[in-house]
Design goal:
This protein has eight helices and 19 strands. It has about 350 residues and is an alpha/beta fold. The strands form four sheets. The chain has a six-stranded antiparallel beta sheet with strand order 4-3-6-1-2-5, covered by helices on one side. The chain has a six-stranded parallel beta sheet with strand order 10-9-8-7-11-12, sandwiched between helices. Strand 7, helix 2 and strand 8 form a beta-alpha-beta unit. The longest helix has 14 residues. The structure holds flavin-adenine dinucleotide (FAD) and FE2/S2 (inorganic) cluster (FES).
């Protein structure tokens, strides 16, 4: 994994809770696709912490890479950066990664529907910019949920895209706590809302659209269920999830299904010439246990989205909270992601 030193060029308050950090263009090649994220590596109170942030900038359109961070109540990194980061500071970041991206094709003619909430707009905004510029025959619709009008990130930027690409870009905002003068949609972007709004933006051809969904707290699951009910095929649904709720629920069901009922599992990790052996409680993931024990395993997003922590389970069994980050073929071959992998047998060997 390549590590960059990114110099902060500008900090912009987008809303009361969200701020963008724009970095100087790195001196060395820094390539990414719209939709991908970087992972910041920080040391806070003597501890190394990593958090991933999607790039809101678009390659070949925006000169400088940018991210946008929404402050989470009592969140360590989102508040630390808000309170401490200044122009000129240098942040360590793992190279752009992730499978949630677009590769625009100039002759493509399709309809892309972006569905997001809160900070989930970040990769969607980058995707919208790239597709509108580099796929001149493609239409883009954005369905974007927030609490109030003041919480909408990139409101003006999206309005500008709407004026620039009149026939090809449309935005539908939906608010859960609108002001009295709000005339747009109201309510959370849940299953029913997705069905209603998708049928509105693509009444006849919704089954052939490509869907990109991103947001915290179950939005991706709700939207996926809705699209499946509409008969949209899995291949047309691309999703990224930021929140921890889904992972906590998934972890609980993985633990319930585990056969390791008596204490901890013995895990051996073979990383080239190095071998690590440690015990893991099935409640915890293999990676989080290794981090606590100061064992230096590769990782980036810690959310099953980038495969930086991938290894091959050559003995024993690992239960993953979800299988979204690996292909069916990789799973068949025994590959696992240690960041969302819990021990499911008394002894496990993983080669990374
Ligand atoms: C691939 C990927 C891309 C991401 N891109 C972005 C981005 O572009 N912008 C952005 O703001 N964030 C993004 N995130 C989320 C980000 O990485 C952090 O999780 C987030 O900033 C919170 O970190 P923290 O240290 O402030 O909170 P923590 O100290 O980690 O968490 C504090 C508490 O808040 C809860 N929590 C953590 N994250 C969230 C959340 N997103 N929503 C609700 N509750 C939460 C935790 O369960 C915990 O209880 C992304 C995450 C991933 C995996
Ligand atoms: S660290 Fe990204 S998938 Fe595990």
């Amino acid at each position: 994994m390549k590590i960059y030193n990114l110099t902060v060029k500008n900090i912009i308050n987008e809303t009361k809770e969200a701020y963008s950090i724009e970095f100087e263009a790195p001196n060395e090649a820094f390539s990414y696709k719209s939709g991908q994220f970087i992972t910041l590596i920080l040391t806070i109170n003597g501890q190394e912490v990593r958090r991933s942030y999607s790039l809101s900038s678009a390659p070949l359109i925006d000169k400088n890479p940018s991210i946008c961070i929404k402050v989470i109540h009592q969140g360590l990194v989102s508040n630390y950066l808000k309170n401490n980061i200044k122009v000129g500071h240098v942040l360590k970041a793992i190279e752009p990664m992730g499978h949630f991206f677009v590769d625009p094709l100039s002759d493509a003619k399709q309809h892309i529907i972006l569905i997001g909430a809160g900070s989930g707009i970040t990769p969607l905004y980058s995707i919208a910019k790239s597709i509108l510029k580099y796929e001149p025959q493609t239409k883009v619709s954005l369905i974007y949920g927030n609490r109030t009008q003041a919480d909408i990130i990139y409101y003006n930027q999206c309005q500008e895209l709407t004026s620039q690409y009149k026939d090809r870009f449309q935005v539908i905002h939906s608010l859960t706590k609108p002001d009295a003068n709000w005339v747009g949609f109201t309510g959370r972007i849940n299953e029913n809302a997705v069905i209603k709004l998708v049928e509105q933006v693509a009444p006849i051809h919704f089954k052939t659209c490509q869907y990109y969904i991103c947001g915290p707290n179950g939005l991706a699951e709700d939207a996926t269920k809705a699209l499946e009910l509409l008969g949209v095929s899995k291949q047309n649904i691309h999703k990224e999830s930021y929140g921890h709720d889904k992972n906590e629920a998934a972890a609980a069901s993985v633990v319930a299904a585990s056969t390791v009922t008596n204490g901890k599992s013995k895990v051996k990790i073979i990383d080239g010439k190095k071998t690590y052996e440690f015990e893991v409680d099935p409640k915890n993931t293999i990676l989080e246990t290794a981090i606590k024990l100061d064992i230096n395993l590769p990782y980036s997003c810690q959310a099953g989205m980038c495969t930086a922590c991938m290894g091959k389970c050559t003995s024993g069994k690992v239960h993953m909270e979800n299988a979204d980050g690996l292909t069916d073929n990789e799973i068949k071959q025994g590959y696992v992601l240690t960041c969302i992998g819990h021990p499911a047998s008394a002894e496990i060997v993983i080669e990374i």
